Amino acid sequence: ECYVQNTAREYAKIYAAEAEPLEGFGEVPEIIPIFLVHRPANNIPYATVEEELVGEFVKYSVKDGKEINFLRRDSEAGQKCCTFQHWVYERTNGSLLVTDLQGVGMKLTDVGIATLTKGYKGFKGNCSVSFIEQFKVLHQCNKYCEMLGLKSLQSTHQKQRKPMSTKSKTLPNSATVKKTVPSAQESKRTETSLLR
């Protein structure tokens, strides 16, 4: 938990350094640090400690990407969280996605990270790779994505799908296809080999 959240926090710091200087971008989401505490005299010897967030707790992104969340889409914090996800995704060449962004205002906690199956630079996330696939399909760029110069994921996704659909429609020319009928002996050999 500490490793994931503090890794996401480091990405958020780099994101902030790039976004804050942009005219009109404004405040940037911050992932608060989380600390592991060892309490040897306690029945539960390890605990995590983090800053208390006071106010309305909002989920700006959901782990599996299926929930429709108007606060995510319509609020400034929500849009900037979605832009942060897009920025991380692009920065890591689609290998890593910070997800499950939630918190109070611009202060976020309890985040998750999805990585490709092999991980990213030795790091493996705590969320399924399917979250990355869903993000690619569901993400809608906003003005903050444009301010950072991020590439639209929809056009990339559509370009990748187009050649596949064209190939499936391509049929061989019927004039070049030879029709051959196997002899009775060849049919028996094929059936025998299939039964083995």
UniProtKB/TrEMBL annotation:
Residues 156-196 are annotated as: Disordered. Coiled coil: none annotated. The keyword Nucleus does not apply. It is found in: Basolateral cell membrane. Pfam families: Alpha_kinase. SUPFAM superfamilies: Protein kinase-like (PK-like). Residues 1-153 form the Alpha-type protein kinase domain. It catalyses: L-seryl-[protein] + ATP = O-phospho-L-seryl-[protein] + ADP + H(+); L-threonyl-[protein] + ATP = O-phospho-L-threonyl-[protein] + ADP + H(+). GO terms for molecular function: ATP binding; protein serine/threonine kinase activity. The keyword Metal-binding does not apply. PANTHER family: ALPHA-PROTEIN KINASE 2, ALPHA-PROTEIN KINASE 2-RELATED. Belongs to the protein kinase superfamily. Alpha-type protein kinase family. ALPK subfamily. This is Alpha-protein kinase 2. The lineage of its organism: Eukaryota, Metazoa, Chordata, Craniata, Vertebrata.
